[in-house]
Amino acid sequence: NAGVTQTPKFQVLKTGQSMTLQCAQDMNHNSMYWYRQDPGMGLRLIYYSASEGTTDKGEVPNGYNVSRLNKREFSLRLESAAPSQTSVYFCASSSSERGSGAFFGQGTRLTVV
Amino acid sequence: SQQGEEDPQALSIQEGENATMNCSYKTSINNLQWYRQNSGRGLVHLILIRSNEREKHSGRLRVTLDTSKKSSSLLITASRAADTASYFCASPSSGGYNKLIFGAGTRLAVHP
Predict the structure, then answer these.
(1) Hey, which bits of chain A come out as E strands?
(2) What is the structure's pLDDT at B1?
(3) What span, in angstroms and rounded, lies between the C-alpha atoms of A102 and A29?
(4) Cβ separation of B48 and A101 shorter than 8 Å?
(5) How far apart, in whole angstroms, are the C-alpha atoms of residue A110 and residue A88?
(6) How far are the Cα atoms of A93, A106, B57 from residue B19, in angstroms, in the given order?
(7) Beta carbons of B78 and B16 less than 8 angstroms apart
């Protein structure tokens, strides 16, 4: 049981480049999330998906797009990377059961130069 | 803006001591969750307390919730060096039960 798997683990981009961060979960969870974490700070929600086919903006959605491809996969796309997007990105999933805890991937460390 | 704010930002104790971390939140909630993050790793869910509960235990963890004060506390008893980590509270935003918003966290250091 792999849980939540994120790829890649590390990535360096040049300003203006685009990339997609992949996330897959094998727990049959309805809810999936993308967060970013900056040094010494908590997690900030970028986008959220309550179920397949639905997405919702979080606290810091600007500069990002998401796609809930199916129940398992939730991808995050940076269309034109900026240095301000240098961060560690975490994907998470949770059951639709009211108030269940979330499971996190190991993170993608992204540097934009 | 973040839903929860932890206090203190950092805490340093000796093994065997108890560690208490506090969390305040802004809006009404139906549950509040605590997570641990070891350096450079993903978060791990520790415990969830529902709005109709006042206290909950899990092993050496004790969580309290005071909805009238919009605050929660996490107590780790008899701490160990392995408890060294950052601890975050999180609660669903007003938009849904599972749309989790996190606080900035408390960095706990437990010294042997």
Answers:
(1) 4-7, 10-13, 19-25, 31-37, 43-49, 56-57, 64-68, 74-78, 87-94, 102-104, 108-112
(2) 44
(3) 10
(4) yes
(5) 6
(6) 29, 26, 15
(7) yes
| Residue of chain A whose Cα is closest to the Cα of B48 | A101
Amino acid code (one letter) for A16: G
Q: Is the Cβ of B80 closer than 8 Å to some Cβ of chain A? A: no
Q: Which of B31, B40, B99 sits opposite A48 (nearest CB)?
A: B99
Partner-chain residue, chosen from A42, A56, A96, that has the shortest CB–CB distance to B102: A42
Q: Which of A32-46, B59-73, B85-99 has the lowest mean pLDDT?
A: B85-99
Chain A partners within 8 Å of B45 (Cβ): 101-103
3-state SS assignment for residue B82? helix
pLDDT digits (tens, 9 = 90+) for A54-83: 999 999 999 999 999 899 999 999 999 999
Q: Do A38 and A107 contact (CB within 8 A), yes or no? A: no
